[in-house]
Write a sequence for this structure.
């Protein structure tokens, strides 16, 4: 009886081990076969340094690219006009910019909704009133909100820059459905968004040449700021905290030596009584 039980356990164990090996092999094969995307190269972004900050001129240009190109389909629901003060524009410029947009507010005293010019406390306008309208205008594909897009993608800055500059003709043997465009940095290679940038598509206010790579760099920096508008303040606070900690450690060390030095340097002699 014991020998029969032992043989059954051994046979089942071998079967389970074989099944586990087969499952692992098939999963590995699927992983390799589904990796049909070119990974974005690593670029050096100056604002990511420990002692670096955002370039406000680049942020202003990136905001211009967003307003003139990206805002036709994508929203920035987490960004208010007031957060751009001192970053991309002055207070007066943003008040004038916001006044050009009408937002729905209310209800009023009669219980009805009404439209009014936007204020600094309002968020940047969305191109669509709801998700259904966005899908209907884009063939069923909803353009995502860009507020946290840099954080929502692996190596967000590198990925977005490569995606914006990586449009090209599909290779031989890569069929493309109608309404899709080939981009090797997008998973699957087929993306519904047409190439958004073109050389000279935006006329920069400061005279910077508006090449595709320059526009992509500026708008990616702006989107990175949108995902972390407190980054520069956090770096300054971190420097202040480190300075305070260093001073506290020096003061503590001096106090320790001042307090215990008399005890550590004294000599105690024990004399045998007569």
């Amino acid at each position: 009886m014991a020998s029969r039980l032992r043989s059954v356990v051994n046979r089942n164990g071998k079967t389970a081990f074989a099944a586990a090996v087969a499952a692992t092999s098939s999963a590995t094969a699927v992983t390799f076969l589904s990796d049909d995307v070119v990974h974005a190269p690593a670029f050096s972004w100056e604002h990511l340094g420990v002692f670096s900050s955002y370039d406000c001129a680049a942020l202003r240009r990136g905001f211009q690219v967003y307003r003139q190109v990206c805002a036709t389909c994508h929203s920035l629901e987490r960004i208010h006009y007031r957060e751009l003060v001192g970053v991309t524009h002055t207070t007066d410029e943003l008040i004038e910019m916001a006044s050009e947009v009408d937002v729905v507010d209310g209800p009023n005293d009669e219980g009805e909704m009404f439209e009014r010019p936007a204020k600094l406390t309002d968020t940047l306008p969305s191109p669509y009133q709801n998700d259904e309208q966005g899908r209907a205008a884009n063939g069923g594909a909803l353009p995502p909100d860009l507020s946290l897009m840099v954080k929502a993608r692996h190596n967000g800055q590198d990925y977005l820059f490569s995606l914006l500059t990586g449009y090209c003709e599909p290779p031989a043997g890569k069929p493309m459905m109608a309404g899709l465009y080939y981009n090797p940095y997008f998973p699957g290679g087929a993306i519904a968004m047409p190439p958004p940038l073109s050389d000279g598509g935006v006329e920069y206010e400061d005279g910077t040449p508006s090449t595709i790579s320059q526009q992509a760099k500026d708008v990616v920096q702006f989107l990175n700021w949108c995902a972390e508008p407190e980054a520069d303040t956090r770096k300054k606070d971190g420097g202040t905290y480190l300075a305070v900690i260093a001073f506290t450690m020096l003061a503590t060390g001096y106090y320790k030596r001042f307090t215990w030095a008399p005890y550590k340097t004294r000599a105690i002699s024990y004399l045998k009584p007569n």
In short: Confidence is low (pLDDT under 50) at residues 13-34. DSSP finds eight helices and four strands in the chain.
